[in-house]
Give the backbone structure.
Amino acid sequence: MLRIEALTVASRERALVEHLSLDLAAGQITCLIGPSGCGKTSVIKWLAGILPAGLTATGRLTIDGGERTRPDPAISYQPQSDALFPWLTVAENAALGLEVAGVPHATAKARIAPLLSAFGLAGNERLFPDQLSGGMRQRVAFLRTIVQESSFILLDEPFSALDAVTRMRMQAWLVARLQEVRRGVLMVTHDLREATEIADRVLVMAASPGRIVADIKIDTPREARGEAALADLRETLKSMLLEDFS
Amino acid sequence: MLRIEALTVASRERALVEHLSLDLAAGQITCLIGPSGCGKTSVIKWLAGILPAGLTATGRLTIDGGERTRPDPAISYQPQSDALFPWLTVAENAALGLEVAGVPHATAKARIAPLLSAFGLAGNERLFPDQLSGGMRQRVAFLRTIVQESSFILLDEPFSALDAVTRMRMQAWLVARLQEVRRGVLMVTHDLREATEIADRVLVMAASPGRIVADIKIDTPREARGEAALADLRETLKSMLLEDFS
Amino acid sequence: AEKVSVALDWSLNTNHVGLVVARDRGFYADAGLDVELLPFSDTSSAALLAGGLADFAYVPSLGFMSARAAGADITALWVTMQRETGRLVYNAANSEISRPADLSGKTYAGFGSAWEAALIGTMIRNDGGTPQWDTVTLGSGAYEALASGAVDFTLEVATWEGVNSELLQRNQASFAYGDYGVPDQQNGFIATRGASIGERSETVASFMRATLAGYEWAAANPDEAAEIMIAAGDFPNPDLVRGSMKLIAEGGFLGGGDTPVGKIDGMRLQRMAQFLADNGVLKDGTGNTLSAPGDVSGWFDESWRGQ
Amino acid sequence: MQPLRRILPAILIALAILAVWELYCAWADVSPLILPAPSDVARALGTERAVISEHAASTLSVAALGFSTSVAFAFLISVALHFLPPLERGLMPLFVVSQTVPLIALAPLMILWFGFGLLPKMLLVILVTFFPMLVSLLSGYARASRDHLDLLASMGAGKATLFRRVRLPSARAAFFAGLRISATYAIVATIFAEYAGARRGIGIFILSAKNNFRADLVLAAVVVSATLTLLLLGAVRLVERFSDRRRGHHAAH
Amino acid sequence: MQPLRRILPAILIALAILAVWELYCAWADVSPLILPAPSDVARALGTERAVISEHAASTLSVAALGFSTSVAFAFLISVALHFLPPLERGLMPLFVVSQTVPLIALAPLMILWFGFGLLPKMLLVILVTFFPMLVSLLSGYARASRDHLDLLASMGAGKATLFRRVRLPSARAAFFAGLRISATYAIVATIFAEYAGARRGIGIFILSAKNNFRADLVLAAVVVSATLTLLLLGAVRLVERFSDRRRGHHAAH
Ligand SMILES: Nc1ncnc2c1ncn2[C@@H]1O[C@H](COP(=O)(O)OP(=O)(O)OP(=O)(O)O)[C@@H](O)[C@H]1O
Ligand SMILES: Nc1ncnc2c1ncn2[C@@H]1O[C@H](COP(=O)(O)OP(=O)(O)OP(=O)(O)O)[C@@H](O)[C@H]1O
Ligand SMILES: [Mg+2]
Ligand SMILES: [Mg+2]
């Protein structure tokens, strides 16, 4: 169980996020939605331990009750920009997290190979990032993130550049994988369908200052989430977002 | 009427796009969908006249029957990455296209001001790009594109970083604006809902090599596009994308 | 053989002829010495000697006296040129100059040492002119500047630059320092550190005797000496060497006959030192001007001749 | 307070070096003709300050003139080379060659060719400071991001607009890096030029100090030269600071 | 063919300059002592080639030794300064000051302090070539993208890993830029050092040519110095080319 208590993030002029608390359970997917600019990325970056220099933050982070300083190897992170290294190939970029963690080269390679094909990247191992399409880059970044050995994964709009079908495949993969290894996922998304289809829980943020205004558990098993029930939920979420705008 | 004839784009190793033809009508929104990596961005870049150095292309572009060389001032373009200039403020980035076209400073400013508030960016005029959220950056890039005086607009996933509600507002703005000024829009999107809701026409691409496999006109007026009818269309599109994958 | 190094004051030239002859005709080897003539560099030979980087140094007279006054522990063993070799040159075609007094208000190409002003000022003053002129520090570019008319006058060594000008058929005229109140001086000292005279007197003596033999041979055989110099290498202009040796021999600069070769004249040294002191050229180690040089008899030591 | 604390380590290290040097001179009893103690140098600076400052003023004015001409020239040439690639291919190798010429060989010849006025000295200063500026500017232009260039090209911007709106702003950091390197060399190059021929200047002062066996004065001149250069560098820093639109904001990129 | 065509403009311009110079010498009847014609220089190079190449060999070996030491040293120091910011604040100002010292003043003193051997010459070469390398490396490290640093930091990478995996690769272009600048100055600096005191080398050759009134030989030495430098630069270019993972692929970023 990862828990944020009373997080406040401020720029020089104003508070961006105020007194935000949330927790992530192992084996669960928590989706974070909210209007553009409300502070989602700021929360994620604080968790990843890389808040930009212009911002200051106060708040407490615990994992299973123990206080943690960040960056913490128990947390892995996919930025909103893909942050691929231009001087590394697809395969090397994908292995970056493992290499940094000291996993032997051969082991890393072996672990990545099946995922490259699962994500539709087979055959592109030796390309450099500037030879990839936007969606391909995003999948490499996703692969780099989930292959790391961490208990919690932070995903900042991980599938925003993917077409509907590829996106579904990636979602399915993520859900299936979570059943095997019990990791906790915090995922920022703008796609309400995505949120309602794969989340165990949806957190809704409002802006100015960023705060959590709703915390919705979805208990229906994923196989049983019918189009009708989800549509209702989406309408509810949309109305919450709309509210924040007026 | 903008027309591409027999466009082929190739890297050193293989053809990325083969023998692709399409046309754009003024006052219409044409959505281009297709699996990640199928060549959508390559087509758009060719149209914008900025194909990367590693790629070669053959093909013909005409506007209203006259052959055009690119870049052409009649076409404006929003890249998949936002390409904001880090040394310019939000307001200056937004005005960039107008400044380049030689529009006087004051005129440009006056034209941009109302759009900044329409796009929820009011109050951020003096921020620099690295102080913006991903969605804010994308809206500045969109603003920069549509404020240019061109007959055709190329949008490469213009709303991918926006939350559902902001996205709806931007879509509504785009549709309303098109009714006033009759420009032609070519928009790459991964959101089938977006495509079905705002497009006059949906082009479906398949990969390896990139080509157009379906050209679907949506004649239903936008006000009358009920949820049910659209759902069917989305299923059709999704099945087309799925097909390409197997 | 014992290794001995000699720092030079200038690129190898005919002033050094005795050293080259002694080396290349084996006089040094016979004395059990292995002598290396260090190539000329931008660092002064007196400094190289005082700094312990060379065992002996060929030092021009002004350099020697300045270093001595500043407290450097160097002692002269020998002086090569028995008469002043320097002179003031100007273009003969320059109708404005016919006597030193005319130099007043003209442009001088200088070398950056304090004694030049004393020298020129004395000459002009003694000739009845106002000692005022414009100095441009040019170093070895001075001669081309003079030839091209960019400057009006400069100083030269008659046995080197003078010969070169003649070879180039430059129409130049000169004034001798001695004619206008500057004391005549000997030039071209060979010096060593004071400490060496005490500790290595054997080496000093055998080196100097072989050197003496070299210069004596050169004075007697100027043409052959010139060829030895040329064979010693790095002379891009052999005729200059030949011409220079000829002038040195004919002008009796090295001595011979009544004048012993290499003999230091204490009187003339004292007079020149006094001249420099009078003109504020000599400074002690902390930069204070010396009003009198004191007794210069301790500045040189020719005891090697007796051993 | 902040800036003072920032340079404190440098000052401490410098003082430590001076102290060791002073003690070494006192203990090892080296001749001040060869290695004067810092206190000797300070004393020389004091007693000769009138003469030195006259020479220094001359050096500073030549350096400032040469340096600013060089910067203007480097900028113009960089623009020309940028817009005319064949010219770049033709001239860059020659500029490289110009840097490989040993100045000690060239300086006296320059004096002969151009006289002992301002011209040869300015030419030498330009010869030394021009190249780092040019290289920095050209590499700055090349550092512009493909995305930004492409965007502007798609707007129909010509090469000139691309240059003004993308390449020039992208080259800002590189420009100041080059300016700092060139400013560092400007004073030294002037001294060098004076050494080969001049009426006055620190170079002449050094030459005559050396000819008079005054190592203390030589080192005093070194101190003055270093001080002048640091002043020039400080001026460059100020220009950089005050021309920054985002002063105070330290964005990372 | 390609490389030849690329340098063709340079060769043409160079030939044009030489032709103008030759004609000027022939027509204006300038003394070869002041400005020898290119043909005089070529003839001098031919007749003195044995002597010159002996001196050149000496210069090249000192330069190569000093330059490689300098590069190694600059790299080590840059790493040390990167990891110890107080050290950077302490030493960088001193390194800047070291560049403001006029070599003409320092070189003779260095000879007095360290003798005629290899040491003072290597020290001078290092003094000249070290600083551009160091500055380039440090600015290269600083050029690493925030996104990349953040990503790696989020993986729990320490300062060392950040350095090895982000800063070092990001500094590649800057490293080679610095290497080119330093290589450009290595030979010239060596000649300079020889000038102040050496047994052989191009510097000594120039000095004696000058004192023997042979401007043609001085210029011949200039030609040799330029050639040696171009060779060194060529070697640097080769290393850069062959150490590039994406050889032949000219990606724009
Ligand atoms: N410079 C390049 N060199 C080689 N191959 C390239 C280059 N640029 C793109 N490609 C390849 O071209 C194909 C199409 O790329 P493109 O960016 O057009 O795809 P896309 O349809 O826009 O995908 P996405 O939806 O993921 O953005 C990809 O397979 C990519 O690997
Ligand atoms: N370095 C900074 N300095 C000042 N303000 C900043 C800085 N970084 C972010 N902000 C501001 O913080 C707010 C929240 O930004 P954040 O990136 O967290 O939003 P977000 O919820 O991720 O939005 P999006 O969905 O558009 O990515 C924005 O209003 C932004 O302008
Ligand atoms: Mg965000
Ligand atoms: Mg794309």
